[in-house]
Amino acid sequence: MQRLESNLSAGSVPQTGTSSAAAEKRPLLLIADDDPSQRLLTRYALEREGYQLVEADSGLACLEAASRYQPDMVLLDAVMPDLDGFECCRRLHAQNPDLPILIVTALEDETFVNEAFAAGASDYIPKPIHWSVLKRRLRHLLQANQAQRRLQQLNQELEAKVQERTAQLACQVADLEQLNRLKDHFLATVSHELRTPLTKIKLALELLRRTPLNEKQRQYHDIALQECEAEIQLINRLLDLQSLEGKDLGSAVAAIDLPHLWHSLIESVQQCTQARSLTLQVGDLPPSPWRFYSHPQLLTQLLKELLDNACKFTQPGGTIRLEVQPIPEGVEFRIGNTAQIPPDQLPRLFERFYRVPTADPWAQPGSGLGLALVKQWVERLQGHIRVTSEAGWTCFLLRLPSLKPSGRT
Known about the structure:
The chain has helices at residues 21-25, 36-47, 59-69, 85-95, 110-118, 131-209, 215-243, 258-275, 296-312, 370-380; strands at residues 2-5, 8-10, 28-32, 52-56, 73-77, 101-105, 123-126, 254-255, 279-282, 293-294, 319-327, 330-337, 384-390, 393-401. With 409 residues, it is of the alpha/beta class. Among the domains are: 2-129, Rossmann fold; 250-401, Heat Shock Protein 90. Strands 1-2-4-3-5-6-7 form a 7-stranded mixed sheet, sandwiched between helices. A 5-stranded mixed sheet has the order 9-11-12-14-13, with helices on one face. The radius of gyration is 42 Å and the shape is elongated.
């Protein structure tokens, strides 16, 4: 036993830079006991188990040795001069909460046991020491501490990976937001640039119609005018998809005259149903008074789009059904038509440019933007929309809350 200080000694402690790989794997234990014979017995028992040992003969020496050697575990006598084991345990625990501390005491009553654990002890063992019990507890505590350290290491590695991945995702999100802004700017710019010449082309075609044309020329003219109007409608819808972003609708919210809106919708859809030989079923308008606030322009566009969509995709001889009713938070519209949509297509109906596949994809003209616009309008009006298709009927259920205009209490 090599004497380091007047009250501190060390046994086979590996020296810095000279320890072998095998020695580095051997746990280092700090024995703190003021009884030399007890330390000797403990050293004899534990060195045979392959442990490295450091000894301290007082509480203060124990604190110094723990700071100097960074042991894997401390065997601490409860009763020592200058600093008892409980206070020494508290200080050790404060310096390193993860350090296993096994208090060795002849005091086994509940008060002392509770004090030991309150001071930060991992476990305790009574005197006289049963060496087989001590060895098992040492192995258990060291294994538990190693597992805890490994878990902490894994948590730190995981946290580092999460932070790294979060930073990567943040960069990707920023890039996507930038791309989205560029896309919106490009889309708005191109749409504006296309709408101007198309408007001039349409005007020229309308002027051309006033000139004498033979039958074949008139057919070509009508085709050109129809395609020009379709392109203008597509551009207008693309602009509509951009126009609502970032706008506050509060100042445009107003009381909705539902009877007037209801009759206006019926009149607009009647022209389509008559042209396509469709049957229109209209539910009764709930009796007044009925106060409802929303954005008049968006609400009208939204409902007309759903009605136009129903007319367009209802076969001649089919039926369109229109219903409205109050709900506690606002109003509910139901727009149904005799048409069947495959269940696997329903989730994609509101995607931009998506059209339900058919044998003839161009049987009904369209851009695939109508329902995408509907979805955006509904979200701006803070409502919900869902679609069902069963038993030969497709039904759009639209629920809109009554909004609060700016300055209204």
